[in-house]
Amino acid sequence: MRRYRTYLILTMFLLPGCLSAQALDISGLSDQTQLSILTAGPAEPLYTIFGHTAIRLKDPGQEIDIVYNYGTFDFKSDNFYLKFARGNLHYFLSKSRFEAFIRENRQLDRYVGEQVLNLSPAQIRHVARQLEKELLPENRYYRYEFFANNCVTKVRDLLGKQDLLGSCQLDKPSPQSNTYRQLLKPYLAHRPWIRLGINLTLGAPADIPANDWQRQFLPDPFSRSLAIADLSLLNQPLVSSNQTIVEGASKTDVTGWLTPGLVFWTLFLAVAGTTLYDLKNAKFRLWIDRLLFGFIGLFGAILMFLAIGSLHEPLHYNWNLLWAMPTHLIVAAGVNRLHVMAWFKYYLWAALIIDSALMASWFLIPQQLPEAVFPLILTLMVRLCYGIFTSHDRP
């Protein structure tokens, strides 16, 4: 992972910047120039999990072969992770040599495919001119949004502009009606803990069905849309040829046995068994509540921050806050003193009723909750019941 992080910094920040100051002579492009879309598949590092999209401009006559990349960001930015979480991290357009782009992806052992666009020399110059304009310091930066403004959608929007491609149709109707969360599912199938973290963080907006245009926020759906698109005024396909530049490794991800479901069901059985034993023997293991309520309360505080303080709309309206209540931190901090206060029992009852209602309406709420947290909520309910029925018996 350390090697991947070092390589990410070099390739995503230093290498793309080495060509950014060199303006391209658009008028000098020959009629042999080709414009193509590069699609890179997922790889092992987390930042590559959903793949990548870039634009290649190749002019054999002028020995020009460069890649325009909207997925560049500055790792040295102040408060990088806070900016990313809050949604005000700025990505920017850069360009690099094609050889550097391929070298990066070969090292990551990821697939790279190329779709050459069926455009006239005038259209290619038009697109190249627009890309060079966006490379200017005053134009190159944009606020990253996972579903709506990323390295794929920037390319999609560029090609979808009427003044660039006429009546090119990139949003042909599809019989499928998937939500954003469902579109992410195949990429997370073999990474259960990452899948859990992403699904817990994403709120109700992630469960809105994406139309044919919106689902192209991922490289693979966008590539498939290009493959069936056509320049309707000319009755010609948009893509003139396809090729695989880098095969990538053919390997099967191993999920592993320590899945969230196994961990949380084991936790539930252990806590339920211990709680039943303590009820029978009038024992009070308050450290269990400190750990359980403290962990869930802290996680709830993070979700609350993202739901309220982040500019990422998909993180808003998160129904997981119904069980991951930030106020549980109060319980964790004062569990050995709060039982003598009258309001504390009402709080426990309220939390228990909310959790019970959430479990009963699991498939009715407008957000798909991760099944893995089902036993975690049950564990919480066990301790809520324990607190309710032992609050007056504690020393």
Distance between the termini: 50 Å
The overall pLDDT, averaged over residues, is 86
Structural class: alpha+beta
Give a quick account of the main beta sheet: strands, pairing sense, barrel closure: 7 strands, antiparallel
H/I helix tally:
14
Strand order of the largest sheet: 6-4-3-2-1-5-9
Count of individual beta strands: 9
Kindly provide the radius of gyration, computed on alpha-carbon positions and rounded to a whole number of angstroms: 26 Å
Give the secondary structure arrangement, pairings included.
Blueprint: H1 2-17, E1 34-40, E2 52-59, E3 64-72, H2 80-86, E4 90-97, H3 98-107, E5 112-117, H4 121-134, E6 141-143, H5 151-160, H6 162-165, H7 180-188, H8 192-201, H9 219-228, E7 230-231, E8 236-237, E9 239-246, H10 260-281, H11 286-309, H12 328-334, H13 342-360, H14 374-390
Antiparallel strand pairs: 1-2, 1-5, 2-3, 3-4, 4-6, 5-9, 7-8
Helix pairs in contact: 10-14, 11-12, 13-14
Explain the overall architecture.
- The structure is a single chain.
- This protein has 395 residues and is α+β, with helices and mostly antiparallel strands.
- Helices cover 45% and strands 13% of the residues.
- It has 14 helices and nine strands.
- It has a seven-stranded antiparallel beta sheet, sandwiched between helices. A two-stranded antiparallel ribbon has the order 7-8.
- A hairpin with a 4-residue loop joins strand 2 and strand 3.
- Helix 13 (342-360) runs antiparallel to helix 14 (374-390).
Can you describe this structure in just a few lines?
45% of the residues lie in helices and 13% in strands. It is an alpha+beta fold.
